[in-house]
Amino acid sequence: MVVERNVTAIRLIIFFYHLLLTGMLAFPGGSAEDPITIAKTLIQDQEYSQAIEVLVDVIRTNPDRIEEAEALMAEIRTIRGSYNQLAADLIDTLENDPDNLEKAVALIDQMYSLDSAPNERTRMQLEEARRTAKLQLDRTLRDQRLARAREFIAEQEYQRAFGEYIQGFELQREEFLNASYDPELYSQVERLITLLSTIAQETTQRIDRWRAAVGDYQEVINQARQASAVGFSGMQGPLWGAGTSQRERLQEIVREDYIFITKGNEVLETLEALQTSTPGIVDYLVFLEVFTRGPQGSTQEGIAGLSRGLWNSVWVQLYTGLGEVVRTEQERFFSLLDSGQFTQAVHQGWKAQEFIAAASHAYSLAEGAPLQSLQEITQPWETRLLDQYAILYRTIQTSIAIAEIEVQLSQVVQASPYGLTQGVQGLEEQDQMIQNLAVLEQSFIQRVEAVRSAEAQAVSFQERVSTHVASLSERIRTSQSRILNQIALDLEQEAQALVQQAQNLQEEGQALVEGIPAEDQELLLRYPDQGLQRYSLSRSLLAEARSLVLRNEQTLEQFPGISVSLGNRRQGIEELNTRIVSQQQRLKELTQQAEENIRLAAEYRREGDQLVAQSTQAAQNLNVEQARDYFEEARISYFQSLELRNDEEFRQESDELILQLGDQIREAQNQIVVRQVRTLLEQAQSQYIAGEFSQALEIISRAEDTWSLTNTTTNPEINLLKNRITAATSLTQERELTEVDPLYATVSPFLNLARVDIEEGRRLVNQGNNNQGRTLITRAEENIENVLSIKPYNFEARIMQIQISQILAGDEFQSLFANRYRETVSRIGSAPDIDVYTDLQVLGEINPNYPGLQANIRELEIRLGLRENPITREAINESNRLLTRAQGLTNTADSAQLQAALDLLEQAIQVNPNNAEAKLLADTIRIRLGGQASLALSSADEQRFRRAENLFIQNNIAEAYAIVLQLLQDQQNQGYPPLLSLRDRIERRL
Q: CA-CA to 68 of 20 to 30 Å: which in 609, 724, 787, 858?
């Protein structure tokens, strides 16, 4: 008999699973394979539904193997139970420990390990939850790795820093590999990872070689500084021997390693191209870019930044040291030149040129493009970074030539009785200077004649003097050319300075027109009027510069014989003319833009004034929607006007006008809102009383939305009624199983099986077949337990439990019922109300007229919010007393007293919801108090608000939140719904 009961139970369990899984693919009959083996395989493959189908088929066709089938069924139930427990743990983690992302991901993975193919909705939810949690977790791990790498860099443990970056490549990699991207994308990414790993590994290996070579070269530099410059030429100075050898060694390193160092930039370019060409955002590529480039704002982190940074640190040390040497040597040269020590200056200049060339060479090595010879330094550099050294080199080179001429002229002057410097009064006297050469020469001859006592010596002296005099005219001409060049250069530099000042004024004006940050850095203020003032000054300076250029041209034309050799000055004049014309054209365009901004600002202001007038009229007519439309357009017009042209006086006026108009519109709308909310509350109450909970919930939600149009605080009446409706809705959904319930497909088969077994068991027991009847009853109890484990308050399951007790107890049921009722009533106040309420209603289905039963049910319905508390005479009196107190506070304009009156009225309504007079007075006070919601911010705060919105959209959450909190410090802003909404959206992301 026991075996028979077990077989029957197993068959029914299998039948339940068969019903549960109706619609699944049936196991193909007639298979030659062992069905139990097939079921085990399906369970291993997590194909539980198909496994159940197979086991059902086994029960129907092979009763001898029922025990094996039941064991496999138990295994499936255990797996499903584990799966449900994991789901509960996941929900608990997400609700109570949302920062524990590792646990959430692990729970989802365990759920997948138990069932890799859940239903579509569950699968999508799990995938989205896992993707979001895993992405946030990986971002946290990414930031931790970046922080550790930064610490290792500070400690000069570069290999460990590179290791952190390389290990970071595993973050989001699994998600990337599981996505369905183009195979070529995966191939390119793998090549990039290999290249980055190579860069990281070899950079730490090569840096010691770089440092050793640089150290040797610095030693040569130090030795060269101690050497005397006398006797060296510009191409064979103190760095010529050992310095050349060391430079060649450095150049070899650059040729071998620089291209390797720059491959990090190639990786970044490739990553950018891949992200641009791939639809959507590929998180793995973003992670790769961060570990390659480093965090935002850093230039020497990430594999590319660190490798280039290590390279630069070596060469920066070299050319920084050489830069100090260059400054010392060139200052010494110019000091000698200024003090008239021309011979020493020439030699010092050669030495300075050598160190300039060395510094330029070191600088070029850092850029990966070493100079081939020292002569390259005198060539035009265009956009290369060596311009400063090139200019300094050429300046010293020119100064050496001047010093050499000065040495020669000084020798002539020393031999002359007059002194050339006394005769050179300016270019206007050049003809007289040349005529004086003959006088000078005659003077030398006369002196020679006077000392003929030593004839041979005199002849020698005369020859020397004649030689000097013969070249004196050319030397004076050279000096004159130099002076004319200096005059033209001075005029050119003065004009260039004016042009530069004009350009600076243009840039200042452009910044004023395009906008400059306010003190708090959150506002961008534009001043086109001040920009026009800068443009006017710039125009005057350009005219003055043009005048200097014309004067320079006229000066050169006065001395055609000399100026013909001054090609550089003529070229400078042409370049200045071109630059002036270009700036004048640019100035014209900028002026037009500023004037256009002023015009548009005035036009927007006029539009705003018109819209304010229209909005005011509409508000007075209580046409709130139209008033708000005009109001919003007016705000935008004023805002655009101030965006184009900041005017603090107009800003203050428009802000006051907009805020005042917003209050007027809000008050008009609040009257409508209060009345509409009252109507909706009454409709929702009617639907609630009628038991139409879903309709009541929809209406009360509309009341909430309507109330929020002019208020930022909640309405207690709405809250109270909504809580009741929500409680009733939740209880109904929990107790009654409908086809729209997500668990319907799971629970309904248990109920159907239990219902059939109870009816059949009742019939058998009534016929005297107690054993078979009790077997069916036992099986029904198991199915009922399955239902209650999922739906603890399912009403039908609870009723069937009582029906079973009624069948089994027979004549003793009345006594059992009484005991059950007393036990249930004793739990009131100690057990959850919903549990006791459900048990009493179940008893009421069996014996609704049992003494005290209905009274206890009504009491619990009141406690659960399913029924309004009967209004007693005491409640009516208390409500009226509160009403009277409130009426005594209403004859005032003081908002604090009105609010106190409203608080009393809300208490009166809560005590007696039928107190119509209290409701009417409450609505009247709400209209008098007005809504709390603001329709607008000040124009400055509006600009800050828009900046916060843009930052939020750009995922710059922290900065956006800081602006929002700053705005909310102003009490007037605390009622602006868009600002409050943005705060809530940000806080959900934090």
A: 787
